[in-house]
Structure formats: structure tokens, C-alpha cells
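User: My instructor asked us to take a sequence, write out its structure as C-alpha cells, and then describe one feature of it. I'm not sure where to start. Here is the sequence I was given:
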Amino acid sequence: MKEKIRIASGQGFWGDLIDAPVNQVMHGQIDYLVMDYLAEVTMSILQKQKNKNPELGYARDIPELMKRILPECKQKGIKIITNGGGVNPVSCAKACYKVAKELGVKGLKIAVVHGDNILDSIDSLLQQGAQLNNMESGEPIAAVKEKLLSANVYFGAFPIVEALRKGADIVITGRTTDTGLTLAPMIYEFGWKESDWNLMAAGTVAGHILECGAQATGGNFLGDWESIENFEDIGFPIAEAFSTGEVVITKHETLGGIVTVETVSEQLLYEIGDPKNYITPDCVADFTSIHLTQAGENRVEISGVKGTPATPFYKVSCSYDDGYSAVGTLTYSWPKALAKAKKADSILRGRLRNLGLQFDEIRTEFVGYNACHGPLVKVDEEALSEIMLRVAVRSHDRNSVERFGRELAPLILTGPPSVTGFAGGRPKASDVVAYWPALIEKSLVKPLVEIIEQV
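Assistant: Let's start with the prediction itself. The C-alpha cells for your sequence are:
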């Protein structure tokens, strides 16, 4: 049993820095590379891709990445864990095997974790007693059941642990919690018991810090961000985890960025509700119990984390079709740039009203004035040199949205002067994907772990 392992974050979302996982592998010693690709909306995108092509439905960056890191990872014994399998982890595994064959990498074992995709099982699960009511509104899922695009259970760390126990070099999952990717290797390497809630919470906190990539090493940092060096080659965080539950957050010294109590604290506050009850499938972590200590340059020690038993539920992330939307912009210049933009907005709304179009919502922002801070803005309106008028509409009537797209350009010659910035053609109607969070009893779903044999 190991006493310490180094777990490196390689991606914070699908579309993050392409070179980040490569740098984690090449610039120093690590034992695990964990990569988080999924967000709620990502699942619906991947499901649509799979509907068009049954071989797709995973983060297609992964095979290209494997071409760059697989030989090095195999040589150094670095294990890879990612939820980038999306709605098709099996196809992702096969694509990785194809890369391994091309590179001549032998003896590779890839495991997949699936069973999280319950889209085709909704009726059966409802008959078994599942509710799947909206967690926020309480609405029954019947209200959107026929419009569902995706429905995925958030599994935790233990299916990944099972995959590691089966000897996997790479673990590719579907909808696994971001924190579970990091917690799993700790459970596996240190032999932690499922009922040791403090250890489960310690690993969960480490996973929360790693899940957003460089956001813990100076990226998106609200503090003294101007003093941070080498953003161009920023290092992603690494968790040095100890069997006792202590964790040190650090990074490769050859890479940019910074690891301080402040950068780690900002990430700890990211996307949490009740800090005493950070709920995951593996435990409930108490973020108010966390102690942070600057243990050296680019080294922050985490200790004292407390946890309580996990709930009997998994969270389910569903998405569904909810109409159409379109966004258009025009830019007005000085003098009286804001007054011009406001008048253009008034004219546009009047024309849409006169046409009798149906909208669920029309939203206007004046970028350069109030798009970020809204009514809190206190500036000299006359001094503004340019304003971008950005108007968005949403409706269940596609024709109304399409007609909106044809009403923006005419403002150029039939509205206020000094206008520019109309590029890319008319705004097009796009599908609105809405989010439906729900809970399901753990007893009703079961994760599936299998080794995908190379063919």
C-alpha cells in the first residue's frame, strides 16, 4: 500500500487548454492524470451526436490527446481517468485502442464505467417507484418526459475503484462526478473504507479543487492576478495525497501560475451551495471544517476535513427541448452611443410587437455599459465611446424567432446613426436546451464496469 500519490488535473471542461494534460505528463512525476470533460449541457450535445452517429457521443479530443501522451504514460506507469466517455464510453475506449495500435503501445488495459445513461429506461424506472421530480420546482417529470434529450445519473468514485482493481491503465466513464475522478485513486491506493466519511470527504475536497483545472493555480483569480507569472504556460494543479487524508495542492515548478491559500480558497467556493453539506454520491463533505496552510512556495496543505454519510440518492441530470432562441448584435459609436443603442432597442421591440410575434422572453444588454453589473453601474453615459447592443429572444414558436433575425439588419438604415458591427449574417434560430435536475434512489440503478478488450 502506498503512503503518497500525485494526482494531476488535466482538463477542467471540454474545450480547456489542449496542452495542459501533455504538460502534466511531461514536466514532472505524477501517478494519475484525471480529466473532467463534462457539464450538464455537454451531455445533451453528446447525445445528439450519438443519435446522428452511433460511434460518437464522447469527447473527440481524447484520441488525439492519446497520440501525444499514451507512450509516455505507459512507460511511466501513469494511469488515466476521465469522464470524457460522455454517452458512449465504449466507443471512446475503442478509439483509444486504435491509437495504441498505431503507436505500437502493447499491454494496455482500458475499463469503461457506464450504466449512468437512463434515457431509454425512464418509463421502467417510474414504474419501479422512481419520482424524478424537478429538484428545484417539484414538477413531475411527466411535464417534459416526451421532450427529453438526455438523462444521466451521477455515479461516484467506487465504480472507478472497481475498474482500477481490475487492472485498468485507463478508466473512461460516463457521467461521473467531477470529485469522484480524484477520490477514486485515493480509495484504491490507500485501501480507504467506504464508511470512513472523513477520508471520503478529504478526497472529495481535493477533487473539487482539481476539477476546474487552472482555476486553482491562478486562472480566473480575483485576487492579485496581475502578479501571476507565465499565464501563457500555466500549470494545472496536482494533489499530493497521503494515506492519512492530508492533501497538498501544488503544481509543476517549471510551469506558470501560482498555488496559494487564496487561489485554492477561491476554487473551494466555486459552485457550492450549503458549505456544511457538499453532497456527493460518496459522502457529504463539510467545507467549513477545511484548514488551509501555506506549506511552502506553491504548496497548500489541506487538513481537518470532516464528512458525514452519503445520502441514499444519486443526482440525475436531464436535459430537454424547450423552444428556440436567437441573439443579434449591433454596435453604436460616440457621440451619445448609449442613447443610440437604447433607441434602437426601443424601435426593434416596437416592430416585433407590431408584427404580433410570440416570445417567452426578450432580453437586451448594452455591452460596455451594463452587461455585467446591470443596475449597479455608475458611469458617465456621455463619455462612453461605443456600445454594443445585444438582443436575445426565446420562444416556442420558431417562426417568431426566425423573423426576429430578419428585423435586426434593417436598423442599420432605419434607426439611429453611427452603427457598425453587423457581421456573420442574420441571427439564426437555435434549439434551447433546458436543465432538469432530479434524484433517484441508488437501489434502482447500478453502474456497469467492464474491461474493453482490444480487438
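For the description part of your assignment, you could build on this observation: The chain has twelve helices and 19 strands. Try explaining in your own words what that tells you about the chain.
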